[in-house]
Amino acid sequence: MSWQARIDEALEQRRQHGLLRTRTASQQGSGRWRVQDGRRWRNFASNDYLGLSQHPAAIAAWQQGAARYGVGSGASGHVTGYSEAHAGLEQALADWLGYPRALLFISGFAANQAVIVALAQKHDRIVADRLSHASLLEAAHLSPATLTRFRHNDPEALRAALSTPCDGQQLAITEGVFSMDGDSAPLADLAEVSRAAQAWLMVDDAHGIGVVGEGGRGSCHAAGIQPELLVVTFGKGFGISGAAVLCSESVAGYLEQFARHLIYSTAMPPAQAVALQAALTCIQQGDALRDRLQRHIRRFRDGARQLPWQLSASHTAIQPLIVGDNQAALSLSAALSARGIWCSAIRPPTVPPGTARLRITLTAAHEDEDIDVLLEALHDAARG
């Protein structure tokens, strides 16, 4: 089979099963509203949970950073791309989250790949929650270590996996808040199990940082644990992009030598680091935003209980409605779109077969009216 035939066959299979992904270009940022082709939708598909992508302080900080540093970093941080803005943000993150060091990466995907591939060696074992993000699982597959996946959010399943003989070191991996189900990991129990097995614990808290816990410090702080490796990303609660790895001084030194994404990628623009510092201040002072988000979550869940689709047990900003069939999920998304509501249908392979869903995300930028309009449209769609 030729390259072109292979590509054509793969695309056709996606089409036939209702799994073909497409992109659509928005005319403005991802805030309360999505604007496209002159039409406006209420946006329930954004991960900008606190609305900070549109915050005047973050926008002004990026502009000020660009005026000082320009719009790019010019090189890897190991060459000339590491600025005072980067160093200041790393120190602020480390102080805020209680770690000796923080290292910046251009994305959460890059951070997860860099850490796992740099650490894992041939005789090691990686034990990951089976619903871990694609970046974590792909990195584990790419590493020379053995990958074992344990039952979702089950500390005893993790204990069993870690208890079998291993010639090397073991790394347990989970998320703080899971991106497709919106549920939270039992982090205190997972940390205890990992510690008992002398394994390190790595937590990707992409969807918890800024939103969960005292002062928005995230899932691990709320659970009272400090994993050996904590990954926080800036495309959700921070409203921008990029990521950081929080770790010990020695691990940071090791990653500076062996993490290829850190060594060989152009560093994030210094202006972005300045904007992230402003977003961090907004998060630290953002109790009102987090309270507003929690009110929206309660309002939605109270109104969605009578819907015929499965409402997840999530009490986070991620509120999935499990529809099941791929085409049915697409049809429900289209019905909402016709009512001026933007809500994406999520289908396999992003989620397990038979669990296609609407991934509804709520933000502090929403108004009560938005939640009510969404619920009315869902109930009308349920009635056919």
Overview of this structure, please?
The protein is of the alpha/beta class and 384 residues long. Helix content is 43%, strand content 17%. The chain is built from 14 helices and 14 strands. The chain has helices at 3-16, 56-69, 84-97, 108-119, 134-142, 155-163, 187-196, 219-223, 249-258, 260-264, 270-284, 287-304, 326-338, 368-383, and strands at 33-36, 39-43, 101-105, 125-129, 146-150, 170-175, 200-204, 229-233, 243-247, 310-311, 318-324, 341-342, 345-346, 356-361. The protein has a 7-stranded mixed sheet, sandwiched between helices. Strands 10-11-14-13 form a 4-stranded antiparallel sheet. A 3-stranded mixed sheet has the order 1-2-12. Strand 6 (170-175), helix 7 (187-196) and strand 7 (200-204) form a beta-alpha-beta unit. The longest helix is centred in the last third of the chain and has 18 residues, at 287-304. It is globular, with a radius of gyration of 21 Å.
